[in-house]
Structure formats: structure tokens, C-alpha cells
Design goal:
Number of helices: 21
Strand content: 5-15%
Number of strands: 18
CATH class of the domain at 7-270: Alpha Beta
Largest sheet: 8 strands, mixed
CATH architecture of the domain at 7-270: 3-Layer(aba) Sandwich
Amino acid sequence: MAHNFQMSNIRVLGYLFPKIYRNLYQHIYVNRAGIEKLRKTMKETPVVLLPSHRSYNDFLLMSYILYHYNLPLPRIAAGADFMAMKFINNVLRWAGAFYIRRSFGSDKLYWAVFTEYVQRLMVNGEAPLEFFLEGTRSRTGKSLPPKLGLLSVVLEPFLKGKVSDISLIPIGVSYERILEETLYAREMLGIPKPKESTSGLIKARSIFEDDYGSIYINFGEPISIRSLCEGHVDRSAYSLAPRFLFSLTKSDQRFIFELAYTVLLEQQKTLVISPWVLIASLLLQSPGGIPLEYLCKRVEWLKDVFVNLGGNVKWPVTKSTLSVVKASLSVHHTAASVSKNNHVYINSASTWTAPGEAHPTVAMTKEEVMTIATTHILLGSYRNQLTPMLKQAAMIALTFAKQLTLNKDIMMSRYRFLVNLMSKEFIFHPRTLVQDFDAILRKLEASYYLVISDDNISLTTQGTTLMQFLQKMFHPFVLGYWFACQYILSLNPDEEISTTNSLARDIQDTVACRIAEGDLFEYDILSLNVLENAVKTCIQLGGLVNNNRNYSSAGHIAGEADNQWEASPGCQAVRNWLQNPIDIWCSMVRISP
């Protein structure tokens, strides 16, 4: 488990990494102000670095940056999967990595050793601790729900008075192009992830022949646990408890749960998007291609919207929009290209039809559907980088549907439902729903997208344009959830499915058939991430209920412990609620519900 930090190894890596990164990336941008705040904080309290996790590259990137700025290098919590990589596992261990299991199960001895080891690192305070709050890499470009185990272990020394304070540092690591982008898209289609191995790493050396753009690293404001705990946590409750026992009160567990979401939301604020994210979002709404000149105008519009709503865009101010767009298309040449007539197309889209054109007369095979879907889902992973700043505005857009004016109470009721529905897709703070609702309304009103008069909220002309864009952008998620409900309600009573994952795969097969037959053109819905989240949400909202007894409803899922799940009226209610926006948007995507 333990690291074996060796400075000699760090010096070798410090020599090699600049050469490697120069071959892969154009630039690595770091906010110097964040670095200086981190330097000051390290002198005052134990520090925990919490970077976003989108690539294997994240592991040693922080170490490289801190080494460059002459700061103490972190001790990194890494998955035990890397122990299977001969030689590389030792290189990582010498660089400060220590390996932990993905799941501890009922192994109390391992839990005790792990807890003591991590807390000893925190109490000694010789170096910052680094781990990924999301637990694993996000394959979809969205933040994953936080894992609370390691965060709870890290905070216990403060709660029991072993340290006076702990500082959490949210860090946004944003890639213009992710090394594993194609692998991620295939994983979302159900192709298993290759196992970590040294031979696999050697075989992947062809990546050095391509251009992966730039990396943007943004260190957020330090979060003092002592300041956050004031008025919320009573540390005296632990004064008489044995210090060797790991135990947290229910109120402290709730505090840590809310803290994890606070950190993730702060982390999202530090993320920086590249122009390609804007381009990918617009291309997905124009699968039949888009004129380059018009694309540039739309990119400028979307950039302004994103910045107005609080997002960070890395935009070369000295270059024209046309040159920026062409440079981005050059980096992402595998996903999109410009034709001779100056139209931008998604690659592998030759079988698609532009809006208004006739449907294909020859049905595609499932393999052809999945091939096209790979590029589509790849683009979707970049589009999803817009969701942290746009998700609340999108929920407002979805409440409007096709209306131009809406009562505020009705909007709030719909907004609350949508947040609950999409809580597994996007990160919403569990305690600030009403405040977030009021804040986004004020922000949209200040940007002249909405007019609020008494209890009614109306769209302006530019607000209508924005709402239509957001409805189309989030439409695949809504449609995916609708398909999940539709499929669950269509199951025969005698059909049995072993896990929620297998149910998601069955729904995926159904969607693939609809696409192959020309009835559906939303490739995003093939993502297992969306479908699995939809099934879990059906369970969470009562659409699927656990039932170990005899049943007569539409289908059930037999879980690992012989649990049985059956469709309930809740599933019908969710499907019916989603039916209205589906009917409205059918004309946009040419689907036969």
C-alpha cells in the first residue's frame, strides 16, 4: 500500500516529462495566482489536493506542476489496478503514489490499516495529499457524484482534534483533447476497458504522432474545513471517544456529504473550456453539416452565452474566430472535417441525412450504427463540458417547453422535478435547490434572456433563442430517460433481468434497432452511462420498486441478493411527464415515439 517516495526518481521524471509533454501538447497553462495561494496555504495547514479526473495523465500532472514551481510534491492515492503494470507501478510509487483497493468489502483489517496510514500522512503534514473525489475517471466529460470514503478518512483527524485545520484545494484540469477520447466513447457503447498493463502503455506510443492541443490547470480558492465547520459540527462529541475508533455522527456524515458536493461545484468553477467544446456542441445539433462561416457566428454567440453564465473559455484574443475554429478542427481532425465547399461535417456521418431530407431507404446494421455512434458520443463528451455552467439554465429551458410565459410556482415545481430526475447526470447541491433556482433566474434576467413580472416569467427574443438551443442540447438526456421508462413498462411479467447494467444494455439494443431502421437519429442515447443513470433514477423515484414477493407488474430485475424489482405507477408517471417535451421535439429529431 505505502508509497516509496524517492527524490532521485522525481528528478529523472522532471527531466523526461517536459520532453514528453512537448511532443503531446502545444501548451500547459497554469494560473499563477492559484499557485501562490497554494504555497501560502501549505505553510499554514495540511493540504488536500482535489483535481478533476478526466485522464490517466492526471496522476502525475500535479506532481510535475508542483515540481516546476518548487512546491512539496503530493502523496497520491491510486487504484490498485496499477499494481499490475510491471516497472510502471514502482515508478509511480517512487513518485509518491500509494495503492488502495477500489472496494474494501468486509475486510476490517484492511480498512483499519488504510485509515491509519492516510491519517498519519495528514497529521504529519510533510506533503500534501492528492486524491480524486470522483473516485474514477469521468468518461463522459461530466463530473461524477463524489465518493465519500476517503474524504471522511481525511477529515477525521480534524474532527478529533489531531490537527487544527485542513485545507481542501479544488483544481480544474481541462484538456483540449483527451488522450483516451476514443476508448471512452467505445466504453460508453459497451466495449470493455482494456486492462492497465505496461505492454498496453508501450503499444499506445502512437499517440506521440498526434496533436492534443493544450492543457489548462486552474487552482481554486483553498477551502478551510475549520471555517466551514463553525456552527455545523460539534467536535466536542469526539472528546471522550477512543481515538483509534473510526466513527462519525449522523450530522457529521451529512456535513461531509454536503461538503463533497460543495467541493465538486467549486471544482467545476475552475474548469476551462476550449473553443472545440463550443464547436462540438453546435455540430451535434447540425448532423447534416454546417457552413463554416455560419459555424463561426454561432461559436461567437455560444461563447458569449457561456461567459455570461459564469463559464471560463480559453480564447486567443489576438486571433480571428475563423482562425480559432480552423485550429480547433485541425486538432480534432479525427472527429470533424471541412469539405471543399466549406461545410463542416462530423466524420463517419456519410449515412446521415440533413434536416428536411428523406430518410435512408436502406436500413443500417447494428455494427454500422455503433461505428457512427462512436464519433457522436466522443463529440458528446466534449459538449458535456458545457453542462456545469449551463445545467440550471437548461432546467429552466426544459420547464418552458414551447411556452413563452410561465407562472413562477409552476416553473419551480417543474424545476424541482427535473433536478431530481437529472441528479445522477449532473451535480446539484443537495441543500441549495431554491437558492440556485432564484440565482439562475436573476442571472438570466440580468442578461436580458428573461423578463420577470410579478409571478410570471416571460422569454425575450434572445431568451427564446437560448432556450431552444438548451432544449436541443439536453434533449438526448430527456429522450434517453423516456426510452428507459418506455422499455421498462413494455416488459412482460415473466421477463427477468439479473442487474441494472444488463437492463441498460437491453435498452441500448432497442435504441440501436430504432436507429438502424431510420426511426431515430439521436446517437447519444446509446451511451450506457445515460441509460444506466436512467434505470437508477427510476429506482430512486419509485418507478422500479423492490419486491421479493410474487408480482404481476411489467417486469422485474433480480439483484445480486435475489432482490426483485417491478415497474410501479411511478415509472408511468415519469414517462408521462417526459412525454410532453418529447412530443414537442419530435419534429426537431424526426423520431416516431
